[in-house]
Amino acid sequence: MCGIMGYIGAKETQKVLTKGLGKLEYRGYDSIGIALHDGTALQYNKTEGRLQDLEEKLEQEPLTGSVGIGHTRWATHGKPSDENSHPHMDAKKEFAVVHNGIIENYLEIKRDLEEAGYTFVSETDTEVISHLFSRLYDGDMVSTIQKVVDRLEGAYALGVVSQHDPDNLYAVREASPLIIGAGDGEALISSDIPALLEHTRDIYILEDGEMAILSEENVKLLETNTGKEVSRDLFTVDWDMEQAEKNGFDHFMLKEIFEQPTALQKTMTGRLDENAKRVDFDELNWTDVQISQWNKITIVACGTAYHAGLIGKHVIEEMTRIPVDVEVASEFRYRRPIVDENTLVIVVSQSGETADTLAALRQSQHLGANVLAITNVVGSSIAREADEVILTMAGPEIAVASTKAYTTQVLSFYLLGIYLAQSKKSVSQEYREKLIDTLSHIPEQIEEILDHSKGIRYYSESIKDAKSVFFIGRGLDYAVSLEGSLKLKEISYIHSEAYAAGELKHGTLALIEEGTPMVSLITQDEVSEKMLANIKEVKARGAKVLGIAEEGNLDIWEYVDETCFIPQTLSLVTPLLNVIPLQLIAYYTSLALGNDVDKPRNLAKSVTVE
Ligand code: M6R
Questions:
Q1: Domain-wise residue ranges, the chain
Q2: Sign of the alpha-carbon torsion through 395, 261, 302, 284
Q3: DSSP character for 125?
Q4: Which of 89, 138, 412, 448 is the most exposed place for a label (fewest CB within 10 A)?
Q5: Which residues, 6+ apart, have CB-to-CB distance to 451 below 8 Å?
């Protein structure tokens, strides 16, 4: 998804912008550009391709100045090309604009502008904004921004530099994230925190319907419509840059896989009380009466977060006997979901900015539901708009393929299940205690899996040329299979499907041929006999089976070709362990294929458009 960076101050602006854009690369992009005001005029340089391509161009034609904006583009309107890259300028080169989001009525605006004689050089929706600035400029940037914004429908975060006012940098936000860094004698705008950390930890989060005026001396936030000044507390970032860097690992994804024991420990700390054998969420404001009134829980999310929700369903139903639905946000928002004041809606999102999930949150609130967000990003739109928030303590997740965010989301569901069960007294104290004890050992058990992951690397290399890879399981193992399959296809580009093992006979078996790799999860005690029968079926058709089972389950030797053992735990908790080999399979397969593991093709980390 697009990334915005802007700077005003005494440092070398070109360098600040390109370095900042480098920190936003994880969001996925296909073109990149910057514009600076050099004291006399606006100058820009932009290109299809990566940061290195831009840097090569800038070596030939460097840009100077003390104010500038930059952008990484992820094409939506018009193919990746130099012309379609941001910043976009008006014909007189008086305004440079970078934009994240989509202008829904851009065609209508474009027609008006063309009739008035404006000529377009790109296919983007953004270019209408720079021409609108030119057309509507009235000598005052704030009132011009108001007039421009009045014409725009859709989602946008904007960074604007004007020839008429080069001592200020302007930012506007409507339904697309934008943050502001307030430094000493400098100020910055960005789509995400890592790009600012080298300069400041003091951040303002711009809200929808607000604009900001940044100068070297200060930052002013205004309501866009009225121009009224807004007072906002600074938010101080308490994690450091090292956490967002690779720390000696070859890829962010591998680093993040290995960070899971710590991330899970942090997510439990202060919530899971091993001595008192209970779970406390100081941040939740529900009463027992309120909890007792929910007759249904609906979990809404996208991608990996949706898969975490599938585990959440099992866990919450087991712990509370409240029926739980799980739905993909892009489906939920376009139907008439049955949600009311007796429903708890749980939205799950690592970034807290996923457009469909945010829309589902708003729709649920509109229908009267209480909305809990499970998210990783403090100050994100979802964290701010939800009624209640559980923060996963995964720290920054940079790789597009989500790993530690998933396991911390899943862990949050276990903690939530126990918390609700305490309130409803729906399971015995003994069972809750056992679960709490089991969860407290998970970080060290994940360490164990990671310490013995060599075999997984060999296995991954052996499947790198496969046409298709299948994942099967039953119950919770099926839910984890879906995540394993998504992870593999996302970064290895190998076709993959996950199936509930009992469904194979209803169609999928036809796809199994000699040598088809089949990853089988066999960690659910109640259905392990059934799984072994399914494995026999696929083996009989030539599949090459990797069995993932708990240590001590030696029976599987005679059924599978290869094994991967995870430490023993309660059946309900196995997802936190058996997903680890699946993440590693995806990582090592992608590596063996020479793919860009952290930035897979066509994908973005944060999907802020629908
Ligand atoms: O930020 P979110 O958790 O809302 O993102 C949802 C999905 O886009 C995300 O989980 C995606 O599926 C991952 N890249 C998968 O690894």
A1: 3-242, 246-440, 451-610
A2: negative
A3: S
A4: 138
A5: none
Residues paired with 472 in a beta bridge: 499, 520
41 token code pair: 């005029």
Tokens of 401: 């393929």
- Residues 4/159, Cβ–Cβ less than 8 Å: yes
What is the rounded distance in angstroms from the CA atom of residue 310 to the CA atom of residue 576? 13
Q: Which of 48-62, 74-88, 126-140 has the lowest mean pLDDT?
A: 74-88
Distance CA 490, CA 605 (A): 12
**CATH match for 451-610 among 3.40.50.10490, 1.10.3720.10, 3.40.50.1100, 3.30.1370.10:** 3.40.50.10490
Atom of ligand 1 nearest to the CA of 302: 6
Q: Architecture of domain 246-440 in CATH?
A: 3-Layer(aba) Sandwich (3.40)
Report the mean per-residue pLDDT for the chain: 94
Task: Report helix, strand or coil for 96.
Answer: strand
Angstrom CA distances, 605 to 124, 168, 495, 507, stand at 22, 31, 21, 33
Q: Name the pTM for this structure.
A: 0.75
**Phi, psi (5° rounding) for residue 193?**
-65, -45
The residue nearest atom 12 of ligand 1, judged by CA position, is 303
- Other CB atoms within a 10 A radius of the CB of residue 348 amount to 35
Peptide bond into 323 cis (omega under 30): no
CA dist 29 and 49 (Å) reads: 8
Taking only the tens place, the pLDDT of each residue in 72-87 is 997 777 888 999 999 9
- In short, whether 305's Cβ falls inside 6 Å of ligand 1 is yes
What Å distances lie between residue 232 and 220, 354, 383, 405, CA to CA?
Answer: 10, 24, 17, 29
Residues linked to residue 273 through DSSP beta bridges, in sequence order: 278
pLDDT at 243: 62
Half-sphere exposure for 315 (CA within 13 Å, toward CB): 30
CA of 144 to the centre of ligand 1 (A): 37
Give which of 55, 156, 37 is closest to 106, Cα–Cα: 156
Q: Yes or no: say if 545 and 537 are a contact pair by the CB < 8 Å rule.
A: no
Give me the helix-helix angle, 429-451 and 575-592, nearest 10°. 20
